[in-house]
Amino acid sequence: MITTVPDRPVHAPDASLDWSEPLVAGPVVLDERVEPRAAWSAHIAAGDVLTIVDVGGNQSADFLVYAADDTDERYSAADTIAWQRNAYVDTGTVLRSNRGGALMTVVGNEIDRHDTIGGACSKESNTLRYGHHTLHQHGCRENFLAEAARYGLSARDLVSNLNWFMNVPVEADGALGIVDGMSAPGKRVAVRAERDVLVIVSNCPQMNNPCNDFSCTPLRMIVTSA
Ligand SMILES: [Zn+2]
What we know:
The chain is built from three helices and eleven strands.
């Protein structure tokens, strides 16, 4: 099956955004670029703030977070949604663990929508959804598995993840959409670690649906200390 890839929607850079800067000011302790389709991870100390920059616009940053000293305690979409009684993420959202604990808090946000429900793409789901010709494309699950292995974590440690910059609207009838994002080049979100955490990110390699505007672009990760 041959699928036609639509032209990439044009999102003009917002000149008012200074994407070279962390969203929360402070001494920079880490500043790294995540190449398109690549994985990334870091330990972030309690009180430090991670700014994620959507360099090219509408690039889904698939995100997992664990307590650094006990990785059995990890991000829980269900707990995060239930505690704040809202499916979306915005400034003030606390990323909760499977034990209800606070792992990180959103302290700055320039995007109207991030996704808590859509989960990660994978080789297997790509072939089911988009056809066998996508078999050679790795997905976020493969990125997560490779990066998690560096910390002794495996498939059983992967949980339903958060997707920064991805737009999955919940319709009035409960239906989910995967539609064009509401981010733009240079837009940022900032999350503060509430305890020492391990963050694992997949810069989503998906090219078969609009979650990345059909074009994979870099991310930038800036950590500032309190
Ligand atoms: Zn993905």
